[in-house]
Amino acid sequence: MRFSYPILLILVFNIAPFTSNAQRTDSGSQEPRPNILLIFTDDQGYHDVSYYGTKDIRTPNIDKITASGMRFDYFYTNSPVCAPTRASLMSGRYPDYVGVPGLIRQNPENNWGYLDPKTILLPKVLKNAGYRTAHIGKWNLGLEHPNLPNDHGFDLFHGWLEDMMDDYWTHRRFDGNYMRLNEKTIDPEGHATDLFTQWSVDYVKEQSKNKDPFFLYLAYNAPHFPVQPPEKWLQKVKQREPGIDETRAKLVAFIEHMDDGIGQVVKALKESGQYENTLIVFTSDNGGHLPSMANNGPTRDGKQSMYEGGLRVPTSIAWPGKIKSATASDQINLTMDLYPTLLQAAGVKIDHTIEGRSFLNTLLGQKPEHENRSLYFTRREGGLRYGGQAYYALRLGDWKLLQNNPHHAMELYNLKKDPLEENNVIAQEPDMYEELNKLLMAHIQKGGKVPWQKPD
To answer: Low-confidence residues of the chain, pLDDT below 70?
Structure first.
């Protein structure tokens, strides 16, 4: 089944990065600064939420966030895989500009990123502005000093350092234990999704005793493979959806189990009296994993791909009394744009260079900022398929130039005319190809100045 959505025509040009002064801007204001709950899921397909009308899945708690705030139908990640997107989320920058063009892994022979330790991450800025900061769940931006979560502004880290778990019950990766409470190695019992949920509930309840606002970055490993829902959740799906494919049933159950956890965290906000002053973001790190039978909606391909299915993700933002409920936007935003948006909402300015731009005006129902930027997407990977090389995509207005593998030729699409990316017009549009290629080469040159391996 195909879907069609209108694509917003945006004239896009290069602009200077966002800069401003790093300080609180709400001194003297009687209005309290909001708590921030940033929920980040792993490999969740663009339409693996029931608010899009997907018939075989039920995500009532994600749907409630969406219904109480604004839905974004054209929200892009900075990369089709997790670590680069997480680097952009935490830094407000393109991932290769901070040294993370690919996955950060414990195996040095298969490691393709090293976060520049000088990068100013979101929790550090918020902490300096008086926020209490916590990260619960998946980190994937470093396994040792100086790139542990506590090194970059988190008061509390309770979660997983590595990229993925080999098992959600035993919490291991190649027999290594990467579960931590701050810097202490821990070995808790239970499903990882349940652990992250409970730790978040406990944190939210504890923060109700404090007067300062909090920033909670809750990053679930789910629904990243291996797809391991608790048995009762799997049986629930099978009973409700007779004839559903076994692989799809597991993924649906996995997401529904996680959705229930999200609901528990929001419930804790409400029961502790903090919900009305909390800005909630729900989004994912990249497109859904097709071998797991993810539903990426009206897009081509999925995780790892520079086609739309690898880059567009479900995204909703709610803020009681600030964001009008049941609204939707077709504005094009990237993961890195959350950094300045959240800081602006918190009344904090920025005194360093970032590429992200705030879309708070859109959230508040005001006139959006004029769109005049080109958008880049990056990934570097190893193995026989990629050979340690990087591949890219660039979007300029309705035009998109991409290379879906470093060994493949460039492709050019007009997304307004061809949203499913079926008709490669690179031979018919040589002038547009040349223009976009020049922009892409300039981006590659700038990114190439930043080391992505740990220095000796």
So the answer is: 1-30
